[in-house]
Every structure is written in C-alpha cells, then in structure tokens.
From TrEMBL:
Protein family per UniProt: Belongs to the ribose-phosphate pyrophosphokinase family. Class III (archaeal) subfamily.
Free-text comment on the cofactor: Binds 2 Mg(2+) ions per subunit.
Gene for this chain: prs
Functional description taken from the UniProt entry: Involved in the biosynthesis of the central metabolite phospho-alpha-D-ribosyl-1-pyrophosphate (PRPP) via the transfer of pyrophosphoryl group from ATP to 1-hydroxyl of ribose-5-phosphate (Rib-5-P).
NCBIfam families reported in the protein's UniProt record: ribP_PPkin (TIGR01251)
Binding-site list for D-ribose 5-phosphate: 185, 209
Residues binding ATP, per UniProt: 33-35, 89-90
GO annotation (BP), single: purine nucleotide biosynthetic process
Name recorded for this polypeptide: Ribose-phosphate pyrophosphokinase
Primary enzyme class: transferase
One GO cellular component term noted in the UniProt record for this chain: ribose phosphate diphosphokinase complex
Pathway linked to the protein: Metabolic intermediate biosynthesis; 5-phospho-alpha-D-ribose 1-diphosphate biosynthesis; 5-phospho-alpha-D-ribose 1-diphosphate from D-ribose 5-phosphate (route I): step 1/1
Keywords: ATP-binding, Cytoplasm, Kinase, Magnesium, Metal-binding, Nucleotide biosynthesis, Nucleotide-binding, Transferase
Swiss-Prot/TrEMBL cofactor(s): Mg(2+)
Organism encoding this protein: Haloferax volcanii (strain ATCC 29605 / DSM 3757 / JCM 8879 / NBRC 14742 / NCIMB 2012 / VKM B-1768 / DS2)
C-alpha cells in the first residue's frame, strides 16, 4: 500500500497507478501548539511504501510519524521513497562545531524503515549516511519530454559536477552538444558563473541542474547566456524547489521557461518521476 506524505500526494497517486497498488487514507493534522500529526487510520497492509519529499522540517517529522504509524498498524515491510531529500546538501560539517545534517536526518529515517529510495540526491554519497539499504534513481532523462523543438540545442550545466545531468537530458532529447560553466559560490545566494567556451549565440540553450533552490545559480547562468545572444534559454531541473524569490530572479534574467519533475510538486512539475521509481521498486 502506498502512503503519501503531505507534499508528495500527486506523485504517490501516480506511483500507485504505475504499481497497481492502493493508496492509504492518510490524515495530516496540526495541534494548537504547531506540532504535526500524520496518521493512517484503517491501514491494514503487510507492506508499506511511504512517498514523502522532505523539503521542510515539518515534512521530516511527518515522514517519521508515517513510518511509525504503519509499523504500529502492523506493517512488517516498510520502504521509504524520498523523492527530494532535504538537508542532503549539508553533507559535511562546514565549520568546527557544525553538524553533518544529512547524516543526522538519514539516521533518524533509518530507525523505522527497511529500505530507502532517493531520486537524484545532490551527491550519491549521501546514501552512506543511512543505516538501511539505499537505492538511487536517476530521473534526469524525464526532463527532455516537455522541451519544445529546439534550434541547434546546447545543454549546459552550471558547474562541472552536474555535467552528467546535461548529458542525460541531451541523450533523452536525442541531439545537441553539452558543456558546463565554471561556478564559484561566495555565499548561499551569491554565485559567480564564468561562461563556457561553447558558442551559444543564436542557439537554444537548456541549463540543467539537480535543483533550483534560491535560483542564484540558474539566474546567473541565464543572465550570461541572455546577454551573450542566446536565442532562448530554458532551465531543466529535477528538483524545482524555487525558494524565496527564485522565480523573480529567473524571470528578470530572461528565462524562457522552467521545466521540473514532481519530486517537489510545483506548477513547473511537468513530468513525473513515477515511472522511474516504479521500475526501481519493482526491480
Ligand atoms: C549545487 O552544486 C547544486 O547543484 C545547485 O546548483 C545549487 O544547489 C542550486 O542552488 P541555488 O538555486 O540556491 O543557487
């Protein structure tokens, strides 16, 4: 039985369809003091697959509550699908006295599940922080589907670390070159992007990345391309977090369109990762 987290309800329903399984009747509530309560009244299956992105602290607590609730209701096998794993980018202690936050949340999740499935985490090594087996799904290929017909397409990643995503999207699209920018991050919202050597004037460019968070990285890259004479600039991202004023930054930079998946359910979530997740879960 599929058990949706509050922020992954559409994806859980799509995954239930793909797998031919039923959806649990989940209730999300909040006490007057602000504490959350996620419950599964009437849950009576032996196996539970919880689908919950953790883009907020509340979502993490709800995930832990759902894992505990299905165990209480008698589930003997629990799989936890975390389509977008919050805190995954805090994968080291950046200064003395800092926590390794990704490890802290991974350990907590591991206490009441048997298996975890992640979609394009920032670094695959985050899997090592869990105390249960972890499978990683690459959904970047889905991002090619909503793209229109492109003129002499160039698929660019904002840094060398994300070139795999550019290549995957290009391969799924079927044609085009790939390249990457050099990126220097000065702070959470201050990013410098140095143009690639690729000739982008008059061409359609798709900038690909695992996540758009504050939009600082993407808007810098879009600005460089728009100023340099690119024809149209698209952003394709697995996790369209789009925090704070990210949309405004992208619009002001001259973006044509953002396409994303439903690991984080937003209006730009044009494609579902459900088919790729179903393939992994059934494997
Ligand atoms: C960093 O290496 C990631 O791949 C993304 O480029 C980054 O996390 C995006 O964050 P923001 O949208 O805040 O620039």
């Amino acid at each position: 039985m599929l058990v949706p987290g509050a922020s992954s309800q559409a994806l859980a329903a799509a995954l239930a369809d793909e797998l031919g399984e039923s959806l649990a009747a989940v209730e999300y509530d909040r006490f007057p003091d602000g504490e959350t309560l996620a419950a599964v009244p009437g849950f009576d299956a032996d196996a539970a697959t919880i689908v919950a992105s953790t883009a907020s602290n509340d979502a993490y607590v709800e995930l832990l509550q759902l894992q505990d609730a299905v165990r209480e209701a008698g589930a003997s096998a629990v799989t936890t699908v975390i389509p977008y794993m919050g805190y995954a980018r805090q994968d080291k202690a950046f200064e003395a006295g800092h926590p390794i936050s990704a490890r802290a949340v991974a350990r907590a999740v591991s206490t009441t599940t048997d298996r975890v499935v992640l979609v394009n985490p920032h670094e695959d090594a985050v899997a090592d922080f869990f105390d249960v087996p972890v499978d990683i799904v690459d959904a970047a290929g889905r991002l090619a589907e909503p793209l229109p017909e492109l003129d002499a397409p160039l698929f660019l990643s904002p840094d060398s670390g994300a070139i795999d995503i550019a290549e995957t999207v290009r391969d799924a699209y079927g044609e085009g070159e790939t390249d990457y920018f050099e990126k220097v991050r000065h702070s959470g919202t201050d990013v410098d992007i140095t143009p690639s050597d690729a000739d982008f004037e008059g061409r359609d460019v798709v900038i690909t990345d695992d996540i758009i968070a504050t939009g600082s990285t993407m808007s810098e890259a879009v600005g460089v391309l728009a100023d340099g004479g690119a024809k149209r600039v698209f952003c394709a991202t697995v996790h369209p977090l789009l925090a704070r004023n990210a949309r405004t930054k992208l619009a002001r930079a001259g973006i044509e369109r953002v396409v994303g998946t439903d690991t984080i359910e937003r209006d730009v979530s044009e494609v579902s990762v459900a088919p790729v997740l179903a393939g992994e879960i059934e494997r």
